[in-house]
Amino acid sequence: MKRILLVPAIAAGIIAITAGAAQASQYVAYEGRGFTGRSVVLDACGVSNIPFHGSYKWYGDGQSGRMYNQPNAQGVAHFTLPSNRNAEQRTPVGWKSIFIVC
Fold first, then answer.
1. How far is CA 9 from the centre of its chain?
2. Buried-state track 45-79, b at ≥16 Cβ within 10 A, e below 16
3. Is the pLDDT of residue 21 over 60?
4. For 26-78, how does the pLDDT look when each residue is reduced to its tens digit (9 = 90+)?
5. How many Cβ atoms are within 10 Å of 97's Cβ, its own excluded?
6. Whose CA is closest to 54, among 92, 96, 28?
7. Which CATH number belongs to the domain containing residue 82 in this structure?
8. Measured in whole angstroms, how far is the alpha carbon of residue 91 from the centre of its chain?
9. Nearest to residue 96, comparing CAs of 36, 86, 77?
10. How far apart are CA 11 and CA 33, in angstroms?
11. Taking the model in full, what pTM does it have?
């Protein structure tokens, strides 16, 4: 009987973890203007350095992103991308790092 009760509990836990993983803001950095060239997705909590500065897309899905003009989120945050709205810029960006607030 315990085995029967355990299976639904495990299934519910997997569903909860999967649903939680889908809720993550993402900063997509592109090498070129107009979302061209190589790209990288930054979605980890905390500090990430931005390797490309040609353009970007932000998908705000629960966490905000503090943007810095220096690597490693040093200095004062220059701008904050919203946790509940998307944003994009088709032209070069000066931001060197992001701190995703989780």
1. 30
2. eebbebebebbbbbbbeebbbbbbeeeebeeeeee
3. no
4. 999 999 999 999 999 999 999 999 999 999 999 999 999 999 999 999 999 99
5. 20
6. 92
7. 2.60.20.30
8. 20
9. 77
10. 44
11. 0.78
Tell me the sheet residues that pair with 36: 32
Judge whether 42 and 93 are in contact, CB under 8 Å.
no
Structure-block tokens of residue 71: 């690597």
What single-letter DSSP state applies at residue 36? E
Find the domain containing 74 and state its range. 25-100
Q: Can you list the positions of beta strands (E) in 1-102? A: 26-32, 36-42, 46-49, 55-59, 65-68, 79-81, 87-89, 97-100
Place of tokens 């995703």: 100
Number of domains in the chain: 1
